[in-house]
Amino acid sequence: MLLTPRFDMVLFLMTNICNLTCKHCYVNSSPRGEFGFSLNKMETVLDDIYQSIGPVRIALSGGEPLARPKDALALLRRANRVHPLLLLTNGTLISRTIAEELAELNLTIRISIDGSNPTSHDYVRGKGSFLKSIKGIERLRSSGFSIENIELFAMIPPEHVKELHEIVSLAESLGIVRLKIEPIAKTGRANEYWLPYESNPDPETEEYRRFFNSDLASNLFSSWDINEIRDTAFNVLNIYSNGDVVPYTYQDPEDREIGLAGNLNDGTLEEILKSKRMSDAIVGKFVRMSRGPSRSLRAMRFIHKSVQN
């Protein structure tokens, strides 16, 4: 019997090129990363997503999608006709022209801010990146892009848990009303800088969890609604820049081997989704998780109470 997963979102990693070389990058992107899909191929994949899954939300990611600005904007304009859109970006490449073009689209932009100041943020993402990201946010705002459609995303290394409230304060100072926060995922390049998971819960992320369970967190974040994000529902289809299709975000070579359902250079998305290999990928991941999770994250979504849902 074949499983028929229902995906709420497609994470489309269009390129592995990035202008930064972040310490925690789970796909090891860099300025020397692989180019990824051509625009024509991306448009074909976009059509396949609509035919196979429907008008599902698409999260355009990389690498850094705006490292290929013309292709990224062209794809966003095309997808904007039928799909809800999320652009994942470090924000450093948002020029005035790009900001004006993004302001014409109906999408959410998630910008990575991993510290409350240049010292802590640049420790993870590289010198000068904090101020460039803040400038990108300012350009979006001055272009008329809705502040309610800008979301900050912070991945917190163990040594910066004490800054959690300062990151939220930074968001408030910028007028941001939506955040996603989680501890460093120890996969990809992060394995070079932080200890691997040795148990569950992971000792290095335990302080992060204790903080959110504390009365202090309740007092500091009283203006925000906070909900934990469950990431084990197999509701996000991942399409990687080399064409690999995986029904979850893989974390290591074994995880990739288990989850690889097919490659878009060898077959259509519809064929992959209906294949036994897709079913086997999901079952295999469940079996691996039953041995004990290799990833013990607790992602939190913040929405300011001033937002009317």
Describe this entry's structure for a reader:
35% of the residues lie in helices and 17% in strands. The chain is α/β, with parallel strands linked by helices. The protein has a single domain (9-304), classed as TIM Barrel. α1 packs parallel to α2 and α3 (96-103) packs across α5. It is globular. The N and C termini lie far apart (40 Å).
Count of all domains: 1
Instruction: Report the CATH topology name.
Output: TIM Barrel
Quote the average pLDDT: 92
- Number of beta strands: 11
Strand content: 15-25%
Summarize the main sheet.
11 strands, mixed
Number of helices: 11
Radius of gyration: 19 Å
CATH architecture: Alpha-Beta Barrel
Order of helices and strands: EHEHEHEHHEHEHHEEEHEHHE
| Widest sheet, order of strands | 7-11-6-5-4-3-2-1-8-9-10
CATH class: Alpha Beta
Assign the structural class, choosing from mainly alpha, mainly beta, alpha/beta, alpha+beta, or little secondary structure: alpha/beta
CATH homologous group name: Aldolase class I
Helix content: 25-40%
Please give the alpha-carbon distance between the first and last residues.
Answer: 40 Å
Based on Cα principal axes, name the global outline.
Answer: globular
